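> forwarded from #structure-qc
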């Protein structure tokens, strides 16, 4: 077993599974208002991929919202992210070590045709 630790903050953890869809054992520690909640995963040595299902909450300090009235066209709200310092942990359960490398895949659950821009300034309509 390989332990892995991260400290997500203000996320709702729903499930942790391996590449076969089997549950992976995890433990949540006490919540620290600055650092978040210690998430300790017990990963079997044979597991090469994990899926962590979670949702952000309105308390996420990395996500900031403008109401529709605050935007140029006044029709849709606008969300943007700021991940300086330790704010990324309120948007995704990132490991607390530069030794960990991971790919992030997300599902965008929006209604209607809204604009999305990636980190390079490019965007697309969906």
């Amino acid at each position: 077993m390989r332990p892995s630790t991260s400290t997500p903050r203000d996320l709702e953890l729903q499930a942790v599974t391996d590449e076969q869809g089997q549950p992976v054992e995890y433990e949540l520690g006490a919540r620290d208002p600055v650092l978040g909640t210690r998430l300790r995963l017990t990963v079997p040595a044979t597991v090469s991929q994990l899926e962590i299902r979670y949702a952000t909450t309105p308390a996420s300090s990395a996500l900031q919202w403008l109401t529709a009235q605050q935007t140029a066209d006044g029709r849709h709200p606008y969300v943007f992210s700021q991940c300086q310092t330790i704010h990324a942990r309120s948007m995704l359960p990132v490991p607390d070590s530069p030794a960990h490398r991971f790919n992030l895949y997300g599902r965008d659950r929006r209604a209607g045709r809204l604009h999305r821009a990636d980190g390079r300034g490019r965007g697309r309509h969906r």
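QC bot note: Strands lie at 2-6, 11-18, 25-32, 36-43, 50-56, 63-66, 78-81, 115-117, 123-125. The CA atoms of residues 57 and 107 lie 15 Å apart.
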